[in-house]
Amino acid sequence: MLTECLVYLAIFSLLTGIGLAAFYLCWNNSQALVFVTDDIGAALRAGERWRADVRNATGTISLEPSAAGERVRIPGRDKLVVYRFETGGMYREVQAGKTSELLLPRIDNSHMSAAARNGVTAWRWELQLKSRRQEAQLPLLFTFEAAQTKP
User: Fold this and answer.
1) Number of H-type helices and E-type strands within the chain
2) What's this model's pTM, rounded to 2 decimal places?
3) Which of 19, 34, 88, 102 has its CA 20 to 30 A from that of 95?
4) Position 64 pLDDT exceeds 70
5) What is the pLDDT, as a whole number, of residue 76?
6) Taking the alpha carbons of 14, 18, 23, 25 in that order, is the dihedral positive or negative?
7) What is the SS3 assignment for 119?
8) How far apart are the C-alpha atoms of 95 and 74, rounded to whole Å?
9) What is the pLDDT of the chain when averaged over all its residues?
10) Among 3-17, 90-104, 118-132, the range of highest mean pLDDT
């Protein structure tokens, strides 16, 4: 009777250990999925904001490489918007109100470029976000394109 009780206790402990290991594996993967969806949503919002600023530009958009990163100056009707990439983050500065905000904090690589296409200058922003997990299989890569509607 005592031997049977010890066998049942050992089997119960083994099954409980396996169940807890599976639970924590699912829990960690669920948290990683939440983090990735948050990062994707933030990147898409930042990209749409950048595209809106490029479409609403009233002057010539300029790209200025610097030692810390790069800056893109987008002149608007009554303001100058500057996007700057430095220290792993993308910042959006509005010169009229002297405000600066951090659009994306976890950027691995960012590059903006212009290309002439049939008389229209198209702007392209290539973005790679940092992975929050070491075992990530695919990097989060985004490409946004926009053209100025008011030359």
Assistant:
1) 1, 8
2) 0.81
3) 88
4) yes
5) 87
6) positive
7) coil
8) 10
9) 90
10) 3-17
150: phi then psi, degrees, rounded to nearest 5: -125, 90
Give the Å distances, CA to CA, from 133 to 18, 33, 108, 127, 138: 24, 11, 13, 18, 11
One-letter identity of residue 39: D
Q: Please determine, for residue 97, whether its predicted confidence score (pLDDT) is greater than 70.
A: no
Mean pLDDT across 81-86: 90
Distance, CA of 105 to CA of 43 (rounded, Å): 10
Cβ pair 63, 113 in contact under 8 A:
yes
Tell me the helix, strand and coil percentages in the chain, rounded to 5.
Answer: 35, 40, 25
Q: Give the separation between CA 121 and CA 74, rounded to whole angstroms.
A: 13
Are 148 and 121 spatial neighbours (Cβ–Cβ below 8 Å)? yes
Q: Of 47, 82, 50, 54, whose CA–CA distance to 148 is shortest?
A: 54
Structure-token pair, residue 74: 């987008």
Work out the angle at residue 34's Cα, subtended by the Cα atoms of residues 31 and 37, and round it to the nearest 5 degrees.
150
pLDDT at 104 over 80: yes
Backbone angles phi, psi at 52, to 5 degrees: -65, -40
* SS3 state of residue 101: strand
